[in-house]
Amino acid sequence: MSEKDRRTTKQRMLDSAVLLLRERGAAGVTVDAVLAHSGAPRGSVYHHFPGGRNEMVLGAVRQAGDYIIAMVSESAASGDVQQMVERLVTFWKRALTKTDYRAGCPVAAMAQDSRDLVPGAADVVREIFAQWRAGLAEVLSAGGFAEQRAQRLATLVVSAVEGAVILCRAQRDLGPLDDVLAEMTPLLQRRD
After folding, report:
1. DSSP per-residue string spanning 14-56
2. Residues in the chain where the model's pLDDT stays below 70
């Protein structure tokens, strides 16, 4: 098997684990479920993930976290704070409607139900949320906000968007994300 094929199989497995985390939470990410969803052969699990299921799940949540960090970094390059939040909201709206509200945030799913299920999960989740907040705070600081306020606003953005995703799933409605964007806009325009 070529190196390209191995990467493809591993990536398919990680993508499947991310989707399963989003839809079922950490408890729903089993080796069998990932194999069934990804179409990967059983032997590939321990080839690509010598630590088994836990390594695969942690890899998936890191991948999901990195995706959001990349989105924040791209927005940072433009320097437009409002665009950054709009982009996050748009991303989640698309993700929710595409999955008929079945799939939420894999990092939030891991935070909610994994402390005993996946050793090391709490540390990884804490690290990802810290990276998100730090990335957002950096964009806000670059946009003219005082450092301390930028850090508080970054916490507010993460909390509000993550909470809105949960509400959207529960209500099967995108309204909570619209509400977050509407209320966040004036906050992000004040630079005091």
Report:
1. HHHHHHHHHHH-GGG--HHHHHHHH---TTHHHHH-TTHHHHH
2. 1-7, 114-115, 192
> Whole-angstrom Cα distance, residue 103 to residue 55?
21
Residue labelled with tokens 């990349």:
70
Question: Contact 127/134 with Cβ under 8 angstroms?
Answer: no
State residue 159's pLDDT score: 96
pLDDT score at 1:
52
The dihedral region occupied by 104, where left means phi > 0, alpha psi between -120 and 50, and beta the remainder, is beta
Burial of 55 (0-12, 13-18, 19+ CB in 10 A): middle
Collapsing DSSP states into helix, strand and coil, what is residue 182?
helix
As a whole number of angstroms, the distance between CA 53 and CA 45 comes to: 8
Kindly report, residue by residue over 61-92, the tens digit of the pLDDT: 999 999 988 988 887 777 777 888 898 999 99
Q: How many CB atoms lie within 10 A of CB 98?
A: 10
